[in-house]
Amino acid sequence: MSLDELRSAIPDYAKDLRLNLGSVIGNSELPEQRLWGTVLACAIASRSPQVLRALAPEAKARLSPEAYTAAKSAAAIMSMNNVFYRTRHLMSDPGYGMLRAGLRMNVIGNHGVESADYEFWSLAVSAVNGCGQCLDSHEEALRKAGVDRETVQEAFKIASVVQAVATTLDAEAVLAEVE
């Protein structure tokens, strides 16, 4: 399935998602690596096989092998970090915030692409996974790297649209079975 087929699969009641998907990907002013790494990382984070099957081949065709691997690693490591840091933040006992995490996260410092791209992908995955502490951390790193708010917002625009498309199409698959 291609991007166009994915857009066509979106039901009419979710037409806004179809239009938004075309807009956040097709009309993006982001550099291609940043855009398609974000799309891939968000598709992985969405946990939707249908969305990942549609978007991964296009991402692979548009990214260098190093960027493709780095975007996958951002989705993987942020999946772990988002659960860990979101949980620690939500715990009533602030003492957990003083404990050493004790989790390996070496890929964050050794990912093989421009740091701002990796931070961008990490921010987008954190938006999908709803981790405020990670969102703040990656947004701060991007802003220190000179990325403006409008550009940072593109990360969570892509995340929100990819996640909404995944939710809608996965629900449609189940509804087709029960209706």
UniProtKB/TrEMBL annotation:
- Read off the Gene3D superfamilies from this record: AhpD-like (1.20.1290.10)
> What name does this protein carry?
Alkyl hydroperoxide reductase AhpD
State the family named in the UniProt similarity comment for this chain.
Answer: Belongs to the AhpD family.
Against NCBIfam families, the record matches this protein to:
ahpD, ahpD_dom
Task: Extract one GO BP annotation from the record.
Answer: cell redox homeostasis
Which EC numbers does the record give? Answer: 1.11.1.28
Q: Is this entry keyworded Cytoplasm?
A: no
Q: Which reaction does it catalyse?
A: N(6)-[(R)-dihydrolipoyl]-L-lysyl-[lipoyl-carrier protein] + a hydroperoxide = N(6)-[(R)-lipoyl]-L-lysyl-[lipoyl-carrier protein] + an alcohol + H2O
The record's keywords, sorted A to Z, are: Antioxidant, Disulfide bond, Oxidoreductase, Peroxidase, Redox-active center
Q: Which organism is it from?
A: Streptomyces liangshanensis
